[in-house]
Amino acid sequence: MRTVIVAQVEEARRLHTCPAHVFLRLHREDRFTLIFTVVGELAWGQSASARRDWERLCQPFPVLDWTREVAWHDGDLFATSEPAAS
């Protein structure tokens, strides 16, 4: 999800539609959440380095509290989205 959000911010600065915009438009009815580590990564990144920009970027998305279940689910999503290491 972090990649989608960062891509959306970067493409908005360039004033044209990108795959992130298309994805979010197609999934407009879906509920997206952020895990706390992604929120931290967004604060660290250049897309929202000012705190005000960071808060505005994260505002539409509920942030999941840290639990072992959330961490496991996040790890599982990451594992299934990345190519296997050789």
Task: Report what the structure shows.
With 86 residues, the chain is mainly alpha-helical. The protein has one domain. Helices cover 59% and strands 5% of the residues. The protein has five helices and two strands. The chain has helices spanning 2-13, 19-26, 36-44, 51-58, 68-81, and strands at 34-35, 63-64. The chain has a two-stranded parallel ribbon with strand order 1-2. The longest helix has 14 residues, at 68-81. The two termini are 25 Å apart. The relative contact order is 0.13. The mean pLDDT is 76.
Low-confidence segments, given as residue ranges, are: none
Provide the spatial order of strands within the biggest beta sheet: 1-2
Question: What portion of the residues fall into strands of 2 or more residues?
Answer: under 5%
Topology as H/E string? HHEHHEH
Largest sheet: 2 strands, parallel
What percent of the residues sit in helical stretches (DSSP H or I)? 55-70%
Spatial separation of the terminal alpha carbons: 25 Å
